[in-house]
Please model this.
Amino acid sequence: MSQLTNLTISQARDLLAKGELSSRQLTESHVEAMAQATQLNAFVSQLPDVALEMAEASDSRRAGGSAGPLEGIPLAIKDLFCTKGTLTMAGSHILDGFKPPYESTVSDNLWQAGAVMLGKTNMDEFAMGSSNETSYFGPVQNPWRGRGDNRALVPGGSSGGSAAAVAGRFAMAATATDTGGSIRQPAAFTGTVGSKPTYGRCSRWGVVAFASSLDQAGPITRDVRDNAIMLGAMAGYDPKDSTSANVPLPDFEAALTGDIRGLKIGVPKEYVLDGMPGEIETLWQQGIGWLRQAGAEIIDISLPHTKYALPAYYIVAPAEASSNLARYDGVRFGLRVPGGDLREMYENTRATGFGAEVRRRVLIGTYVLSAGYYDAYYLKAQKIRRLIARDFTEAYETVDAILTPSAPSAAFPFGDKADDPIAMYLNDIFTVPANLAGLPGISVPAGLSAEGLPLGLQILAPAFDEETMFRVAGVVEQAANFTAQPEQWWKVPA
Amino acid sequence: MSVDKATVARIAHLARIGVRDEELEPLAAELSGILQWIEQLNEVDTAEVPPMASVHDQVLRWRGDIITDGGKQDEITANAPDGENGFFAVPKVIE
Model:
């Protein structure tokens, strides 16, 4: 039944509704694919028993005449989402053995919609990374490899496990989170569709916190329609998150009309980078051509503070992280490394429990918030953040959406940027501005690099206008007609 | 701005992360590199710009002062590395 793993959610939904397929069959085929791919390290926990039990419960519900919007669909959950009674470690040693006594609102929404949990996916430690190399559980391998090149490639990060699981066809879709690009960049690196909705659209309750004013959950899927379906099930107002937006939840799938005639699409000149590979520029021009051909009006725009987004982000995000990660003290949950006294116990626990990148960011965050430096760094970054948000507000007075590349390169080999933090941070140059401004963005696979690796285009939209974002994304998807799949080199012979 | 070994030791102490002496020098170089890259923000005149802490100009919601949850001592302490009689246990802090 291996072809079942090639179904999209919308295709499976139709077969399930017609009774031509059971969730049990669908789930079994994904459990099997997942078990064959341990080499990729995309999952930190495979949960075949849970999955089959949930699938059977789903089949019973359907037999009883009730079916949710994701009824019977097997999904992977990023290990940043707390899952009740199931190990949740956020890629960090410091959460050793942590079994949350509660369920995150987003994952609970998915179970309420009828979905099935296949397992928890690997990720950069506390979502801090762009290559999945910072995970305590080791890196995830990208299912894609360059043409005639056996080198293992990064899947992007931090949601690298989720992206690899969807690209490798072990899960029909996966939850992910995006603080500076952690959904959109791995989606671009793996030929999948990844969206970060407007800040406040998905509840952050029960999602292990990295930078609270930037973190947003979103889906990684195989196509734009599935993305719209899954975001609809994840999102919604939640009184348990004080920043959750109490706004109506539109039918995102209904927005996929394919009609963008008369829509104004902005192309920001600041997103042309020195040294950017020519094929990224070419792909972008192609995307512009597709939208124009579909009847959109292309408008050159300026987002003048774009170049300052990344350095401002690397003040704001570490500052918030240093505060959020103060809770890991070896007392209430997770790892404890003994010491002579309480202070030494704290210091030993946090020295052992945090990896190098997390330590680096907690130290930077502590520094920029410390007495004497707060104004020069943190306050300055908050002012720059205002200017970046203002750039978008002004642009959206004349355009309905913005088209950019998703990432400045295709997936790269392990170790390529691991020794140079700033080179690694530059991966998120096109994605970070939307986090600072709280705006929705989606990456859609749009072509292949010269090495045969996926490249993505990003569509940004105004706050709470995911419908326009999905509508434009659907048109890009159709024009790009991206059908390439990675070869299944990881399969162990049965 | 660049940070020296003493500054790294100070912020590591503030963050309660143990850092070995031989790690201070390389960490100082790493953090200095990042801070120098960040300093390009000084090119921008922000004198008249109000800081932005959140993307939503929303007022925090109020709720009734009523108990909605509780009685979960066992669940709350279940993940503790050390505990006694339903409490979290820490190394002795008073002489």
Remarks:
- DSSP finds 15 helices and eleven strands in chain A.
- The first helix of chain A runs from residue 9 to 17.
- Chain A has a mean pLDDT of 96.
- The CA atoms of residues 80 and 90 of chain A lie 5 Å apart.
